[in-house]
Specification:
Elements lengths: L2 E7 L6 H13 L4 E6 L14 H12 L5 E3 L2 H5 L5 H9 L4 E7 H5 L7 H7 L1 E5 L18 E2 L9 H9 L10 H9 L8
Parallel strand pairs: 1-2, 1-4, 2-3, 4-5, 5-6
Helix pairs in contact: 2-8, 4-6
The structure holds adenosine-5'-triphosphate.
């Protein structure tokens, strides 16, 4: 039976931190594929205006093109509203029985603030990516016991830094795929502070 990974985020832009860790989790968890799902508006980032969903999904498409174990879905973008993982996962459950929800450690710390986290964990296995060499132990909640922690490579790349680098005229080589870099420059993304 197929097992898929769902990897949600703003992906503003998709970067090597996402891609390398996704590839690694795909191998470690023996997933058939990983589906990247950009949010229309992230429930966790309502204080920041993201690039348009069209740009974010276009960059995602460029990044996963030709990679057989990566895919994307525009399900949350089409809703044109705040999407919650529980609703997205419920929609995928009719097509896939085994779903692993992939999140970064920073998201696990605030997992108790997600919509219906207990319900959500009845539908998926939570799989957590490392973000730092040494994570803060004091911030644990009850969901830590239910999560699987994967020894993915530590890639210290963040969307915030990439946007900042573009704004200040610094190179973003190696931080995003070449095609994503070309897209960012062609469409003048991240030139102004959001
Ligand atoms: P920003 O700086 O804009 O908040 P981000 O890259 O951290 O950007 P998202 O694009 O929303 O944020 O990330 C989507 C998911 O990927 C989240 O679960 C986040 O924890 C995880 N993630 C992002 N970057 C990395 C990375 N370098 N290594 C592992 N996980 C990551």
């Amino acid at each position: 039976m197929k097992t898929i990974g769902i990897y949600g985020g703003t992906f503003d832009p998709i970067h090597t931190g996402h891609l390398i860790t996704a590839q690694s989790v795909c191998e470690i968890r023996k997933l058939d594929k990983i589906i990247f799902i950009p949010s229309f508006i992230s429930p966790h980032k309502t204080d920041r205006i993201s690039s348009s969903p069209k740009h974010r999904i276009n960059m995602l498409k460029l990044a996963v093109k030709g990679i057989p174990y990566f895919d994307y879905s525009d399900i949350e973008i089409k809703k044109k509203n705040i999407s919650y993982s529980i609703d997205t996962i419920q929609a995928f459950k009719s097509s896939y029985k085994n779903i692993e929800l992939i999140i970064g450690y920073d998201n696990l710390i605030v997992f108790d603030k997600w919509k219906n986290p207990d319900e959500l964990l009845k539908l998926v296995q939570l799989v957590v990516l490392r973000r730092k060499a040494k994570e803060e132990k004091s911030q644990q909640n009850k969901y830590f016991k239910k999560a699987i922690f994967v020894e993915t490579p530590l890639i210290d790349v963040r969307g915030t830094d990439i946007r900042q680098r573009v704004r200040s005229g610094k190179s973003i080589n190696f931080l995003v795929p070449q095609k994503v870099k070309a897209y960012i420059y062609k469409h003048n993304l991240y030139k102004e502070k959001a």
